[in-house]
Specification:
By secondary structure, this protein is mainly alpha-helical. Helix content is 66%, strand content 4%. One of its GO terms (molecular function) is DNA-binding transcription factor activity.
Length: 243
């Protein structure tokens, strides 16, 4: 999950993208799909080899990701995928509720048949991804649905903030989700989209709040996070057997 070798380039979204943009998008997508785990070291040298670009370009992409708080750049130690603490996770969800509810309200006001058609296509692609067992693509498409809502809302500052909190939420899910419970967001996206199509602002906003509540309810933010230290994980078992 955390290997940089999984950063296989996907089709470039626009031929006008710069090398910086391309590298940024691939790393962003890998984080959104949870192919890069929180805490993964992002070696400039390895990324440069993967994408065939200079370390200067890699450094610019990582700096851009750090501004969105999905990458942490540590002095003299390099960059890693961010690993939000429990308190940071709670704050991110609180911030996301504020921005998502505003985005939803504006999306209802600014929706057009063309914009709604794009959202409808994204929901279908998300459903298809989960149906074929491609959880990574499903999670990415789920995040992209929320980003597209911000496009529909037509507010650039909200879109920029949305992009940051959506990717940070993906990191939180990768770090704190309990047992990878069945992902049902596409069903809620379907119902949310119907409310937006019907111009029902109050229902759409209420459904978005409920949707975010469901995502947060799947997370273990009350206890300690899981450990990667086997001695810690099995310490209770060892002590019990020694009695």
């Amino acid at each position: 999950m955390s290997s940089l070798s999984q950063l296989e380039p996907r089709p470039v979204k626009s031929s006008s993208n710069t090398q910086d943009d391309i590298v940024y998008e691939h790393i962003f997508d890998a984080i959104l799909e949870q192919r890069l785990a929180p805490g993964t070291k992002l070696s400039e040298e390895a990324l440069g080899e993967i994408f065939g670009v200079s370390r200067t370009i890699i450094r610019r992409a990582l700096l851009r990701l750090s501004h969105e708080q999905v990458v942490s750049i540590r002095p003299n130690r390099g960059a890693v995928v961010a690993a939000p603490s429990v308190e940071e996770a709670r704050q991110i969800f609180a911030a996301r509720r504020v921005v998502e509810l505003a985005v939803t309200e504006l999306a209802v006001a600014n929706a057009t048949p063309e914009k709604l058609g794009r959202l409808r296509t994204m929901v279908q692609e998300e459903q298809d991804a989960f149906a074929r067992g491609d959880r990574g693509s499903g999670i990415r498409l789920s995040g992209e649905f929320h980003l597209e809502l911000a496009h529909v809302a037509g507010n650039t500052p909200l879109l920029n903030f949305q992009r940051s909190v959506v990717s940070q939420t993906s990191l939180i899910i990768a770090q704190y989700e309990v047992g990878h419970k069945a992902h049902c967001s596409f069903n809620e996206h379907e119902e949310l989209l119907k409310a937006i199509e019907n111009g029902d602002k109050d229902k759409a906003v209420a459904m978005m709040k409920e949707h975010l509540d469901h995502i947060e309810a799947k997370l273990n933010l009350d206890g300690e996070s899981a450990s990667t230290d086997l001695h810690v994980v099995f310490s209770g078992v060892v002590k019990k057997n020694r009695r």
